[in-house]
């Protein structure tokens, strides 16, 4: 039975999983005596399971060959584009005061772990609808987590191309002579390995947040949003509104998982010596988390000398914490703001703090994590290449050391990283121009483009001088924003790999 289920298309399996997940908000709405929302989720879940069962039964008699890695990539792309059409159905029926397009954009934002919301008015969404947003974001984070190992890694995409020997979008040449496990079994095995870790970390964070003072529902949404780096919150004031600084400190520890995959696994070693402390991604990430707040803190002290407030050390410590939490949050593309971030801005006197957050989001988190952005490993490859070029300016005939892996990263890896960075910049420019042509001003268009491509939706509220109201955008601009979020989640190289002739040859 299990082997027969694994032979079904990936998009069909995902639809069945999400249809089953709809019963959770249905039960919550029923417990809150919100019967219209409960019926919307219950009927949608039943309808989805029936449709999946009928289609699966119709396909069970066909002899299907094992899908290739490129076909799995195409299924993943289809999941991000078509699956939100189904996920938006109970949200649209339960809310009853919005259009289906708005519900679709909201579900694309949640599934891609972007977290940009069209419904930022407090009280407009019920707790069950907030739970569905958080649950879709959590499952979307798990989907990209599993896909990074089972789909993107065999194709040398998603950041793996920096250390791989084969070309992006193709398998390793040395492994092609051996018969690998079927893609369905590989996905199932990866899911069985990662799901307990993902669920266990989420449960642990939920329990800690409840102890810190969050309500159980709020704690669950914040826990799911932290592990998925979606930044979804039912509170207008962010995670510190109920749990305080203690809750922020707990979330801070769990956001470190977005900086490097080595925080929970050992299958993407990029350093000569094993261990998290020698991982370049984690070290660069921590350097930014410590260095950027310290730079802002130096402005705090200079400003304090000017106004003769140097004795207020407690306010200085709170401002430093607000900077560290917010920097890590946007670097991991989560997007939570610290309750002390306003205080940090006031101390630094920085007129444009949004530029700092935009830059951190573009850098992004670790490879094969739920974080988005350019990724720290690509930044590291470009840093090694630049360092080597500067050495050659002084000693043109020198021979670079540091081992074969480092030579690979700073040559071929840096070349591919530079290509990706240029594609990212071109995508950013194109989306900005299109959004500006559709009625957005330049600042809003830039913020929207970076928020979508880096999957950091809260930038729309935090980076611009005036928060961007997504609900007021036109239908065409909303569709462009949805396409940009999908592009940012799958990355440009993966989209280009879909045009490989080998995918359509059959």
Main sheet specs: none
Which class of secondary structure composition applies to the elements? mainly alpha
List how many beta strands DSSP finds: 0
How would you state the average pLDDT, rounded?
85
Number of helices: 21
Through-space gap between termini: 27 Å
**Percent of residues in β-strands:** under 5%
- Percentage of residues assigned to helices: 55-70%
Radius of gyration, taken over Cα atoms and rounded to an integer in Å: 23 Å
Q: Name the poorly predicted regions.
A: 173-179, 304-308
The SSE order reads HHHHHHHHHHHHHHHHHHHHH
Shape: globular
Overview of the molecule:
About 65% of the residues lie in helices and about 0% in strands. With about 500 residues, the protein is mainly alpha-helical. Helix 12 (about 315-330) crosses helix 14. The chain is globular and about 70 Å long. Residues about 175-180 and about 305-310 have low confidence and may be disordered.
């Amino acid at each position: 039975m299990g082997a027969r289920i694994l032979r079904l298309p990936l998009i069909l399996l995902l639809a069945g999983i999400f249809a089953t997940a709809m019963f959770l908000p249905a039960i919550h709405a029923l417990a809150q005596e919100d019967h219209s929302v409960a019926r919307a989720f219950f009927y949608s879940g039943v309808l989805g399971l029936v449709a999946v069962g009928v289609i699966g039964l119709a396909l069970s008699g066909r002899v299907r060959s094992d899908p290739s890695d490129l076909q799995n990539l195409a299924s993943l792309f289809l999941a991000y584009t078509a699956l939100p059409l189904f996920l938006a159905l109970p949200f649209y029926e339960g809310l009853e005061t919005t259009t289906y397009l708005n519900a679709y954009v909201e579900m694309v934002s949640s599934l891609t772990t972007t977290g940009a919301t069209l419904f930022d008015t407090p009280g407009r969404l019920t707790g069950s609808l907030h739970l569905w947003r958080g649950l879709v974001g959590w499952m979307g984070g798990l989907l990209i987590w599993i896909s990074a190992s089972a789909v993107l890694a065999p194709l040398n995409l998603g950041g793996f191309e920096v250390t791989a020997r084969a070309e992006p979008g193709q398998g390793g040449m040395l492994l092609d002579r051996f018969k690998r496990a079927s893609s369905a079994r590989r996905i199932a095995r990866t899911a069985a390995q990662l799901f307990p870790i993902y669920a266990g970390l989420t449960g642990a964070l939920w329990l800690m947040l409840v102890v810190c003072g969050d309500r159980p529902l709020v704690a669950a949404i914040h826990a799911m949003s932290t592990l998925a780096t979606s930044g979804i919150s039912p509170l207008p004031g962010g995670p510190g509104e109920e749990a305080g600084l203690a809750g922020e400190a707990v979330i801070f520890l769990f956001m470190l998982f977005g900086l490097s995959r080595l925080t929970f696994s050992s299958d993407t070693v990029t350093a000569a010596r094993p261990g998290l402390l020698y991982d370049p991604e984690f070290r660069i990430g921590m350097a930014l988390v410590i260095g950027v707040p310290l730079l802002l803190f130096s402005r705090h002290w200079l400003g304090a000398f000017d106004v003769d407030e140097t004795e207020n050390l407690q306010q200085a410590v709170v401002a430093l914490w607000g900077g560290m939490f917010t920097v890590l949050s946007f670097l991991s593309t989560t997007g939570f703001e610290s309750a002390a971030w306003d205080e940090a801005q006031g101390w630094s006197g920085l007129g444009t703090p949004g530029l700092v957050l935009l830059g951190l989001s573009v850098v992004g988190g670790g490879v094969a994590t739920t974080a988005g952005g350019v990724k720290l490993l690509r930044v590291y490859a470009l840093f090694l290449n630049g360092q080597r070029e500067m050495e050659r300016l002084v000693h043109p005939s020198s021979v670079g050391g540091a081992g074969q892996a480092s030579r690979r990263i700073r040559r071929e890896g840096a070349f591919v990283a530079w290509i990706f960075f240029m594609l990212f910049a071109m995508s950013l420019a194109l989306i900005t121009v299109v959004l500006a042509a559709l009625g957005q001003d330049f600042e809003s268009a830039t913020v929207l483009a970076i928020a979508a491509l880096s999957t950091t939706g809260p930038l729309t509220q935090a980076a611009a001088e005036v928060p961007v109201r997504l609900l007021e955008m036109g239908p065409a601009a909303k569709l462009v924003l949805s396409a940009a979020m999908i592009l940012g989640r799958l990355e440009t190289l993966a989209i280009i790999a879909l045009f490989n002739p080998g995918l359509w040859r059959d």
